[in-house]
Design goal:
The complex is a heterodimer of chains A (102) and B (172). With 102 residues, chain A is mainly α. Chain A has three helices and no strands. Chain A has a single domain, classed as Helix Hairpins (Orthogonal Bundle), CATH 1.10.287.3510. Chain A starts with a helix and ends in a 13-residue tail after the last helix. By secondary structure, chain B is an all-alpha fold. Classes of the chains: A mainly alpha (102), B mainly alpha (172). At the A-B interface, α1, α2 and α3 of A face α1, α2, α3, α4 and α5 of B.
Chain lengths: 102, 172
């Protein structure tokens, strides 16, 4: 039988892999990809807790649903900002971003 | 049947972790986005294991159909010819790795120390699929444990995102 802990272990590892990428990446799109991994791990947690601990309720499932929608919206706006930054400074590395002040 | 489920589950989990690592370490951004797509599809497989079929469908259509395509377009729009990904200095990798190991250790400690309540009553673990009409009524109802207000708030958020996206990305 697949236990709740197996889901939690996998989502924990995925969460911290995402954080590692968030710390070590320099390209802004690569950072956003790491952020997607983090959010995805959290959504697995919601669904797994709902199914195993409260199988007669729907809270976790709907939080996952809303989380997916919010992630999509956040990605769209972040990519718009990144494309705009590329237009004004020519690349999208995080240590060039302070040039936008000028 | 149980052992087959476990084998498929562990294969899916191992693939997911390996692909996550490749997504955050890959040299090429386009490959990173492709690995992210595969991770998200494996996550849809997890939702199928949990019997959340609707969630798996949403995951595939929204992430694979929307978010990853958006990523790929943004990568193409911001690519400089012949550019390779720059790296931070090695110190940052070391500190990042140490921080991540500490975080995994702390979380695993809490996880294995805690005993979840469902083990005392395994018959509670439901295997049935949630019907589509129940999902629709819960999403549209105003009663207790129903979600009309968050649904509407989300629609306002999406509207704000559309307006924000147009305003930000518009040519001057």
């Amino acid at each position: 039988m697949i236990r709740l802990e197996y889901y939690l272990i996998i989502s924990t590892l995925m969460f911290f892999i995402g954080i590692f990428g968030f710390i070590t990446r320099k390209n802004m799109i690569a950072i956003l990809i790491s952020l997607e991994l983090v959010l995805n791990a959290v959504e697995i947690n919601f669904a797994a807790f709902n199914r195993f601990l409260y199988p007669n309720q729907l809270e976790g499932m709907f939080f996952t649903l809303f989380g997916i929608a919010i992630t999509a919206a956040e990605t769209a706006v972040a990519l718009a900002i990144i494309i705009n930054a590329y237009r004004s400074i020519g690349n999208i590395n995080i240590n060039n971003i302070n040039k936008m002040k000028n | 049947m149980d052992i087959i489920n476990l084998i498929i589950f562990s294969g899916l989990g191992a693939a997911m972790l390996a692909l996550s690592i490749m997504a955050v370490t890959s040299e090429s951004l386009l490959r990173s986005a492709t690995y992210l797509l595969l991770v998200l599809l494996c996550t849809a497989g997890f939702y199928l294991f949990l019997n959340y079929h609707f969630l798996a469908a949403v995951q595939v259509s929204v992430y694979a159909g929307g978010v990853v395509i958006l990523f790929i377009f943004a990568i193409f729009l911001t690519a400089n010819k012949g550019e390779v990904l720059l790296r931070h200095e090695i110190r940052r990798y070391v500190f990042g790795f140490l921080g991540v190991v500490a975080g995994v250790w702390l979380t695993a400690f809490v996880l294995f120390k805690h005993r979840f309540l469902y083990e005392s009553n395994t018959s509670m673990v439901g295997d049935q699929e949630i019907s589509m009409s129940l999902i629709g009524q819960t999403l549209m109802g105003t009663g207790k444990y129903q979600y009309l207000l968050p649904f509407e708030a989300l629609s306002v958020l999406l509207l704000a995102c559309i307006i924000g996206g147009i305003l930000i990305a518009r040519k001057k």
